[in-house]
Amino acid sequence: QVQLVESGGGLVQAGGSLRLSCAASGIIVSINEVGWYRQAPGKQRELVATSTSWGRTNYADSVRGRFTISRDNIGNMLYLQMNSLKPEDTATYYCNVHRDLHDYWGQGTQVTVSS
Predict the structure, then answer these.
(1) How many CB atoms neighbour CB 67 within 10 A?
(2) If you count Cβ atoms within 10 Å of the first and of the last residue's Cβ in the chain, which end, N or C, has fewer?
(3) Torsion angle of C-alpha atoms 86, 69, 18, 48, degrees rounded to 10
(4) Residue 114 has what pLDDT?
């Protein structure tokens, strides 16, 4: 059974930093494409960052240069380092693992950035 559990969200002032973590079980993050997505109230879920199994990363234009996706293959963890946070980054953040045309999702962690 695949389980993804996010943590690390919270309330931060604009310009601050947070690091989100995603603990994976039942699936190996090192050999699959992984990613972070977010959904703000009243908006559709959107891509934040993805990373292929061979290390190619992709970022949304709105976060490029501020956010960094990484993974710990030994610990089977996924991370999102978020710097220079802006109020428009406020959303629920979800980790994702894509395997065999199927997407697995965590329950989400809330990030709120105050101005």
Answers:
(1) 21
(2) N
(3) 40
(4) 97
Residues 79-93 pLDDT 10s = 999 999 999 999 999
**Amino acid at residue number 29:** V
Which of these, 72, 70, 90, lies nearest to 81 by C-alpha position?
Answer: 70
- Write down the residue that tokens 């090192």 correspond to: 30
Residue whose structure tokens are 């956010």? 67
Picking from 80, 28, 44, the residue whose alpha carbon sits closest to that of residue 59 is 80
Compute the Cα dihedral for 95, 69, 12, 5 and give only its sign.
positive
How far is Cα 96 from Cα 38, in angstroms, rounded to an integer? Answer: 11
* Secondary structure of residue 26 in the 3-state scheme: coil
Q: Which of 20, 2, 5 is nearest to 83 (CA)?
A: 20
Is the per-residue pLDDT at 29 higher than 90?
no
Q: Which amino acid is at 83?
A: N
